[in-house]
Write a structure and sequence with these properties.
six-stranded mixed β-sheet
Length: 281
Amino acid sequence: MPKRVVVISDLHAGSMYGLMPHAFDTYDGVLKPQNAGQEYLWRCWEDFCWRTEQFKPDFVIVNGDCIEGPQRKSNGFEVSLPSQEDQIAAAIKSLELLKTRTSNARWFFTMGTPYHVGDWGGAEEAIARALGGEAYPSVGVGKHCREALWIDIEGVILEVAHHIGGASGFYRLTAIDREGQWSAMAAKDPSKGVPKADLLIRSHVHFFGLGEHASKQMLTTPCWKLADRYARKHSMHRFHPDIGGIFIEVCGEAKKRGEAPCQIRKELYSLPPVPVVKTDE
């Protein structure tokens, strides 16, 4: 019987473009309303949580950037929750909705970008503990949230880490394709000590991408943050995000038969329409 995995990432709670729960109560006792974009995202999030409940996952993996952080480069210009404690609380409250729909699933967390979550990953460690994330051994620091997760599911190894290089040119899958090649080369050298992964999961770039080699599958996950000023200043169209998450069925028997061990399905949501100024009224 295949095992089922849900992967989400890049909630960016605390950003004016990220997930914000309804009527969030800040540390100074002020109810923080959702802006129009956050209200739309929350409707998508509620739908995704419902679809996850129907999927009945065995595992939920939260792959980094749960909070926005202080946004030092922009002096906090696009932060709606300046307090890191509020950002952590908003991320926890958002994920609790998913948690209630996945009561039988085991939860795992990985660290996001230091710029957003801090150099020591303490914010996401706190979130992972609050949500019942499992402690696991891995590289780097942390207990319940670490830089990378290697998880064996029915003899199929998933390698999960937040970071991946951005698309340097027109072809957005170049980075994940390279990662697959490097992973294959490293696994052939026992001195490197890394497991031979069947599926590589990366996030950070805010778009869904899927690639496959003869013996390896690779994907990048969508996000839960609308485009910010940083994205728009590079190009009005190059960095449109994909909103949503990933459903995966992992089958060890398929791997034994020499078939792709993971059946991957994206669950994506349209971006809210941009208003157009009309001059004929």
